[in-house]
Request: fold
Amino acid sequence: MNKDKLTILAIGRNAEILAVVHRLINGHEGWTAASAQTDEEAIALLSKGAYDIILLCTGITKEEEVQWRERLLSVQPRPILLRHFGGGSGLLENEILSALL
Reply:
């Protein structure tokens, strides 16, 4: 996976935080973000294209994370599933880059 060219789907329940995460991802050269507040929106986006990383953000419960892991087992190629708890742009970038190692 090329760390300089990534497509990332951010899923979260808080609209304001999700908007910031979306902006930060798109602000990174070569990275492209899509975002969804509901599972239905996320599933629709997943059906339209492949993502390198699925980022679970604020408001996603532990149970929902387990459900997403199960759903993504059937996706080929299987994207990396990351939990993002917040923080600045540097933290987000480091979380993403660390997951690629």
